[in-house]
């Protein structure tokens, strides 16, 4: 006895045609036989119940994949948040270290030890700017900060304000470039 789908189409005939959906209800070709739900299509052997189970498994698997992706996204957000907090902490520490250094430096510049060195450097240059050789020297420039707080006099130069400003900008740019390398 042969079977035929009620809509007359089996998806095995042409799977690319949207009319051909999964085989469902079949009627026997022999007249007088009752209409029957069958599990497998006799034309294509399509397993209707298995297809329903496969669809449910696919939906379950998709749900699990979505849950996994959501968990991965949450973990990535947590990781980025933690990195951001670590970077903020580093920035705070650097700012605190810089403030502590400048506080110490300001105290040093007011000390008697520095004032004596400063006067020796200005006297050595006869109070003439050692950078331009023309202006009155009123400041002392650190050539290097390697020996800061215990500088030898050759690490110090008597300079005028404009030259000191220019030297400071140049030295800071040079230090920033060397730190990049």
Descriptive overview:
The chain has 181 residues and is mainly alpha-helical. The chain has 3 domains: 1-46, no CATH class; 48-110; 112-181, no CATH class. Helices cover 52% and strands 9% of the residues. The chain has 3 helices and 5 strands, in the order βββααββα. The chain has helices at 48-109, 112-124, 161-180; strands spanning 3-5, 25-28, 36-37, 139-142, 156-159. A 3-stranded antiparallel beta sheet has the order 1-2-3, with no helix packed on it. It has a two-stranded antiparallel ribbon with strand order 4-5. Mean pLDDT is 79; it is low at 1-11, 17-29 and 35-39.
Describe the global form: rod-shaped
Tell me the count of domains.
3
The strand line-up of the biggest sheet is 1-2-3
Based on CA atoms alone, the radius of gyration comes out at 43 Å
Distance between the termini: 85 Å
Major sheet summary line: 3 strands, antiparallel
Helical content class: 40-55%
- pLDDT below 50 for ≥5 consecutive residues: which ranges? 1-11, 17-29, 35-39
Order of helices and strands: EEEHHEEH
Count of strand segments = 5
Count of helical regions = 3
Average pLDDT over all residues = 79
User: What amount of the residues lies in strands?
Assistant: 5-15%
Structural category is mainly alpha
């Amino acid at each position: 006895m042969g079977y035929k789908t009620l809509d007359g189409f089996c998806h095995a005939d042409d799977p690319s045609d949207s009319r051909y959906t999964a085989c469902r209800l079949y009627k026997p070709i022999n007249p007088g036989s009752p209409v029957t739900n069958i599990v497998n299509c006799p034309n294509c052997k399509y397993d209707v119940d298995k297809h329903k189970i496969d669809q449910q498994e696919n939906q379950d698997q998709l749900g699990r994949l979505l849950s996994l992706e959501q968990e991965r996204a949450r973990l990535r957000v947590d990781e980025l948040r933690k990195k951001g907090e670590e970077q903020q902490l580093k920035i705070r520490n650097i700012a605190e270290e810089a403030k502590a250094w400048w506080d110490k430096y300001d105290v040093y510049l007011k000390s008697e030890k520095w004032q004596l060195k400063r006067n020796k450097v200005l006297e050595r240059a006869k109070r003439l700017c050692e950078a331009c050789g023309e202006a009155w020297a009123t400041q002392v420039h650190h050539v290097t900060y390697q020996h800061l707080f215990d500088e030898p006099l050759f690490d110090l130069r008597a300079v005028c304000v404009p030259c000191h400003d220019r030297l400071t900008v140049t030295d800071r740019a040079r230090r920033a470039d060397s730190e990049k390398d």
